[in-house]
Specification:
This protein has 14 helices and no strands. With 246 residues, the chain is mostly helical.
Length: 246
């Protein structure tokens, strides 16, 4: 997706919402939803196979191109049609060739974070239709979920992990403050990054605050009852994140 500067108002968001260049080597999926060819696919397995990036093509795509190819992947929204967002993410890493290749790249953490840092949640106000706005809201989660994987976090220094937590907290705050555009479930994935980073770093104050609901959240990237408040658990993550990034 390209965010066009022509639709932005002359605000601070205008600076941050100029067109994000799409890497020229981004994979072009040959079969897309809404086409007759896609309608002929009968099972989820057939749809997944139609989305696979050929092994011969994967090495020719830059890491930036793989990030965008994952964002464009026709089935990535299936992550949210599940009882565990994290387990769905693990399934896609194992079974979608483009994501499997991405997380195996030595520079995956760097390219994913740069993409994440460039994404301004305030840019949602520049889209005119609810469909466009909805698509934009999910982009954050599609970047946050791979960033929260230990395979990616292990590529980062402690300083980089602190910067990532700080960035995730900023994005969480904006989304929670603008629930007329964003939803709680996807906004909570920003907190999932924070929790995963602190556990990855064995940050003891956070580990000492663990309860069963937080353990569930870390294992699933969502709370047991997704739309419940879980104020205690969220406050534990937020307060520890603020101390962790000092």
């Amino acid at each position: 997706m390209i965010i066009t500067g022509s639709s932005c108002k002359k605000t601070k968001a205008d600076i941050d919402c100029n067109s994000y260049p799409v890497p020229s080597d981004t994979y072009k999926y040959p079969i897309l939803p809404g086409t007759p060819a896609w309608a002929n696919l009968k099972t989820g397995e057939e749809m997944l196979q139609a989305c696979q990036i050929p092994d011969s093509v994967l090495p020719t795509i830059s890491t930036e191109g793989l990030v965008q190819s994952w964002l464009d992947m026709p089935l990535n929204n299936e992550i949210f049609v599940t009882n565990s967002i994290q387990k769905a993410m693990e399934y896609f890493i194992e079974n979608f060739s483009g994501l499997r290749e991405l997380v195996g790249r030595y520079d995956a953490a760097d390219k994913l974070f740069k993409k994440y840092q460039s994404m301004n949640p305030a840019c949602i106000t520049t889209f005119k239709t609810e469909i466009e706005q909805g698509s934009f809201t999910f982009l954050f989660s599609y970047i946050e979920l791979p960033l929260a994987q230990d395979t990616i976090l292990n590529q980062m220094t402690l300083k980089q992990k602190k910067i990532l937590v700080n960035e995730a907290m900023k994005k969480y705050k904006y989304r929670i403050d603008h629930l007329n555009y964003y939803d709680i479930i996807t906004a909570n994935i920003s907190l999932f990054i924070c929790a995963k980073v602190m556990r990855n770093c064995q940050y003891q104050p956070f580990l000492n605050s663990m309860n069963d609901d937080l353990l569930w959240f870390i294992s699933n990237a969502q709370f047991k009852i997704p739309l419940d408040n879980y104020a205690t658990e969220k406050n534990i993550i937020i307060s520890n994140s603020l101390n962790f990034t000092k």
